[in-house]
């Protein structure tokens, strides 16, 4: 029910996912009348793979998370997360209110041992090697070295799972590459991450290198990660408006624009943000994928694909194992 | 002598500045033989407005700041800063080692009362209103509310001076616009900045709004600011490579590229980073402009123009006055 478009986007995305993954089945939580309407409208077949669950409420995009948690106990979001908790579903995909999804996930699914709050992780495009995973994107505004090391472990497992890389290169975001740069927590985190077994840690990475493709995982605190991600969105928007205006200047530039349209289209397809939809709330005892509120059908399909892949790979269990292996070093750090 | 190109760029930039500002005179610090060569090579006239000072050493781009400060007492950088300290020059422009420029400026010029370290501030382009000043860009990785409030005061004065705006709109970078967002220091800083006289404070601003043009000054700690700025550089580079490749795909796209070249050129001219060259080390008892190491002649000219403008406006004195006016509130905050 969430996001800007609700079932009019989620249902056709489900249709697409059913075709791509014939063994996957869906439980849809929300207004069953609306859902059935959309299923009919989009002529979704294979309805044997679809179950509909009537919710009594929806978390609104601007509901304060604490109130959503307290007052909306039969919301579509909460019912979906309960299905994951009870083992009736392998993963939850939602385009709803991020703060509420975070709060309700934490309450319903609980955290993996040693983790206090989920981190938000998402892929962003890079020049070579296609993409990099950046975390945390805003859930943890203040992070000590232990938490940053947990992020490194979780990001590393996610990259291994989703991209089939044996040894992802992991970097820690800092204002310089030299060991003496940044504040003390960061230097301690660098030492701790470097000491972890089976971690291909490449040290500090500067902001301009995020998009280079030299790293598969870049770790930072949620305050910096959120601002870097949002500034990148803002800059992309700025540049797209400016280039559009450059082509609209006069009849000649408009003609050039017309001719160059397929090229600009190919360019846009390559950097298509839809591919990168599906942030993961990582560190929970279950799989929760946050689709962007403005996600269209293709983007929502990508978020569903991510859920499918994480389920196949049993990502939470893998993260749990790695956190256990590192628990000695992590608890030494916090001592 | 600094930057990637030394006098081969600084001298023609000086020539351009002499034409644009016939009342400005220059003191050039460095290898006088090299400087004279370049002056002759570029046929710089009005040499009555140029004085050359032979330095005995140069700070290298990779010199550790502490060593540059201790061992290079006759470097071109230091001699230039001493000229500002002694009132023989109104401002210093350098394309050299940022860390060393920071350390030596701090030692030679000293800080304004109440300021511990200079902040780095620079203009970045926006959709409307041309540009926004972002600070700190990396000098202060950890900032309490008092320091963030000082940044707001300094940024506010700089925007008033350079852009002739009576009441710049000032925002504080955060992970959300709501008052409850972010960590405690940030909420305290927001309250403190909001309480300052003659400050048009607009509250928290999210990363995607930096480029919107809704703000003239955006304040953040040096860790976040540095990473946001560098990530923006990285993203711009990524997008420019991708668009170039899109036009290089085959003979047809190459033809389109040829036709669209003037449009892409106009686009590039509009977002031209040269215009935004000239970061200011702010909070010192003198004017220090840091030109980018890779700055070309036009970009270096822009950095010189900024120095001229700040000198005309007596920026350090204005900041000093505002810090004094706010000193009660700032010291209450640190109590």
From TrEMBL, chains A, B:
Principal subcellular localisation of the protein: cytoplasm
Keyword set includes Transmembrane helix: no
Gene Ontology cellular-component annotations: cytoplasm
Cytoplasm recorded as keyword: yes
GO molecular function: phosphate:acyl-[acyl carrier protein] acyltransferase activity
E.C. numbers: 2.3.1.274
Compartment(s) where it occurs, according to its Swiss-Prot or TrEMBL record: Cytoplasm
Classification via InterPro entries: FA_synthesis (IPR003664), Phospholipid_synth_PlsX-like (IPR012281)
Alphabetical UniProt keywords: Acyltransferase, Cytoplasm, Lipid biosynthesis, Lipid metabolism, Phospholipid biosynthesis, Phospholipid metabolism, Transferase
Coiled coil regions, renumbered to chain: none
Subunit text: Homodimer. Probably interacts with PlsY.
Name assigned to this protein: Phosphate acyltransferase
Originating species: Aliikangiella coralliicola
């Amino acid at each position: 029910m969430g996001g800007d478009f609700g079932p009019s986007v989620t249902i056709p995305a489900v249709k697409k996912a059913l075709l791509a993954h014939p063994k996957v089945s869906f439980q849809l939580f929300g207004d069953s009348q609306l859902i059935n309407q959309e299923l009919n409208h989009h002529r979704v077949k294979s309805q044997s793979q679809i179950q509909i669950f009537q919710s009594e409420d929806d978390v609104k995009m601007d509901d304060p998370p604490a109130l959503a948690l307290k007052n909306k106990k039969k919301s579509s979001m909460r019912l979906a997360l309960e299905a994951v908790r009870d083992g009736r579903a392998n993963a939850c995909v939602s385009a709803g209110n991020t703060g509420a999804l975070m709060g309700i996930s934490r309450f319903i699914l609980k955290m993996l041992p040693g983790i206090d709050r989920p981190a938000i992780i998402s892929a962003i495009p890079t020049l070579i090697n296609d993409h990099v995973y950046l975390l945390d994107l805003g859930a943890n505004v203040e992070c000590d070295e232990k938490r940053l090391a947990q992020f490194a472990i979780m990001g590393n497992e996610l990259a291994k799972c989703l991209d089939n890389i044996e040894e992802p290169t992991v970097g820690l975001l800092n204002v310089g590459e030299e060991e003496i740069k940044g504040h003390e927590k960061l230097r301690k985190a660098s030492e701790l991450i470097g000491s972890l077994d089976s971690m291909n840690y490449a040290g500090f990475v500067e902001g301009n290198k995020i998009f280079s493709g030299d790293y598969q995982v870049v770790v930072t605190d949620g305050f910096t990660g959120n601002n870097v991600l949002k500034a990148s969105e803002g800059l992309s928007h700025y540049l797209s408006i400016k280039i559009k205006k450059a082509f609209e200047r006069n009849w000649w530039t408009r003609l050039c624009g017309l001719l160059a349209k397929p090229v600009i289209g190919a360019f846009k397809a390559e950097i298509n943000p839809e591919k990168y939809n599906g942030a993961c709330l990582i560190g929970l005892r279950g799989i929760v994928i946050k689709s962007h509120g403005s996600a269209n059908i293709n983007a929502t399909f990508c978020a569903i694909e991510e859920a499918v892949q994480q389920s196949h790979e049993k990502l939470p269990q893998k993260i749990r194992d790695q956190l256990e292996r590192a628990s000695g070093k992590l608890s030494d750090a916090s001592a």
